[in-house]
Prior knowledge:
- This protein is of the alpha/beta class.
- The chain contains 18 helices and 15 strands.
- Among the domains are: 4-150, 3-Layer(aba) Sandwich (Rossmann fold), CATH 3.40.50; 223-353 and 389-424, pyruvate-formate lyase- activating enzyme.
- 40% of the residues lie in helices and 15% in strands.
- The protein starts with a strand and ends with a helix.
Amino acid sequence: MAASLYVITPRAQCASYFGAEVFARSGFRDAQGIADLTAVTVAAMAPSSWDVSLCDEHVSAIDFAHPASFIAITGKITQAARMLEVAAEFRRRGKTVLMGGPCVSLSPEAFRGRCDVLVIGELESIARDLFADLERGSSKPEYAGAAADLAATPMPRWDLYPTERALSGTVQTSRGCPFECEFCDVIQYLGRRQRFKPIPQILAELDVLYRCGFRTIFLADDNFSVHRRHAKEILAALAEWNRSRADGAVAFNTQVSIDTARDPELLQMLSRAGMRNVFVGIETSNQESLKEARKRQNVGVDLLAGVRQFLTHGISVTSGMIVGFDHDGLDIFDRQFEFAMASPIPIFSLGALVAPAATPLYERLRDAGRLIPDGHEVAGSPWDTNIVPARMTRDELMTGLRRLSRDLYTPANFGQRVLQMIDALQPAIVAREPDGAARRAIDSEAMLVIRAMMERGPEERRMMAAVTRRLQHKPSARRPVLQALFRYAQVRTLHESAAVAAVV
């Protein structure tokens, strides 16, 4: 009898800015904002003779009675607590449990003894030995994978994934980032040398996602634009690929740094390829905090002018915002609010500074005695942190953070930023605009989610009326506006979940 594998991505411990918990809150089936790439990639590395199935718990319940020989659990820090719960239950049932992923690689001591096989690092270089050992019944308690050649990464098993319940597809184009932000854990487990997936391989994966019905695809690159020459090569290929789609073009999203705004050719190529939204880690308007965090690419930069350069090329911007740096005083909440309200950025993913395990920030604060014990278990929530702030109390940080988030996302303030985005957004430089039609049931449900959110009260209705009037004069902004409105509905769900948790 062939061996079998059940790959599980457990749910996160709380709603997130880029999740899709709002679907269930609105009466629809569970869904994902971005299809989970990890589980389908792990599934693709199993031997072809194995029977493989998977579960993304954000979409469907875990089958604890699953007959698989081996259970593989993977996840990020936001999923760590649930990963341990799931592992314990399967081990209680006598299953052999493997655990891996970013949080395991960064903090293996938190998982040792809690599973049968611990996988640290990247799986590609050790997959053959790992699965052979499992099949022989001679697996080791721990395996450590080196940095992988992405040409060796197999085609993800999207045939096993409930793609109909994800708004966006995912393709990984590289791993690693050469920057050295003190709080970032990416470079700790993926390295500072950026490795690239071959372009024909990227296009082949896009073909599969296109056939699955996706018309929005996230390019999962920690910093797509950092190596300009290579980024431009990929963008040229994406533009050609998108032009050749017989059933409508695709809208791409990715992550870039603010210095992209200084390269007009790169901006034009992003626009021409179909890039319609980028995530930019602005983090803070406090220059001293940027220096402290070693986010040098943002220091001395007119951040708002940079953001507007993206919009001039038809690309909307989502951003990250952090409070609680050592140079942040109690005035930081007002400063961040004023910065955000002067921007054409509707959605900020807002959180307190967190020190992920293995980062320079973690080591610095640990040595200074400024880490909360067992802080890794709370660091996955935007409403908590594992650090002791320098210039305010922890309660002051949490109170200020919640107030800032509440103020940023009142209907009037959110609507003001949407209007600023519409005004600044210019038509894209593209031969063929991505198709805006709702082609799948989940896309139609997303429109109903937006409608329900906008009808919740008079403030929401006034905001929606103002946005609709402005859109009549610039219909080309419809796609980014709808994306922002859906994200707003998700943020409201995040706020409501946090309020319930606080009461409990």
